[in-house]
Sequence to fold (178 residues):
Amino acid sequence: VKIAGFGGQGVLSTGVLLANCVAAEGLNVTWLPSYGPEMRGGTANASVIASEEVIGAPVVDQPNVLIAMNGPSLDAFEPMMQPGGLAIVNASLTSRTLERNDLRGIHVPATDMANRLGSTATASVIMLAVYAAATGVVRIGTLEEVIPQSLTRKDLIEVNLRAVGAGVDFVRQQDRGE
Fold:
C-alpha cells in the first residue's frame, strides 16, 4: 500500500495507523515513511506492507493499493501500480479520473467529508476507512479499537471515530449505487 499526499495531510500517521491495525490482526507488517525537506506542505508518502509471510524489505515500488490524497500523488504513483490494483483518490483535491483502465478506482470527496465533520485533518482517516470497508483488509472494529491507542491527542479520538463511520457509510452508499 502506498499512501501519498502533501505534508500535513496525515499521510505518515495514516500509514502508522494502518500498520498498527495490520499488526493487531496478527499479520506481519512494515511501515516506511518518505517525505520532502518540508514536511508540512511538501510531499509525503508512506509504504505499508502486510503479509502472512516474512517481509524481506519495506519498500513498495509497485503498489497494488494507492491512497492518493491529492492530484500530484495520483500523477506520481498511478504509473507504478500493479495491474489490477486499487486506487482510492481524494476527489475533493483532484477531479481527474484514472488514466489506466487496468486499475479499479474509488473517488472519495474525503476533504469535503472531513470538513463536514469539523476537522479537515480526518480526511486521511476517511480514506483509510474506505480502503478497509471496500477490501476487508482490516476489520472496521480493529480500526476503531486502534485509533484511541494510536492518537497522542485524546481530544481527537471522537472526530476520528466519526471519520471511520463516514468512510464506511460512503462505501455502503457506493455499494447501493447512491
About this structure: The two ends are 27 Å apart (CA to CA). The chain is about 40% helix and 20% strand. The mean pLDDT is 92. Residues 157-175 form the longest helix (19 residues).
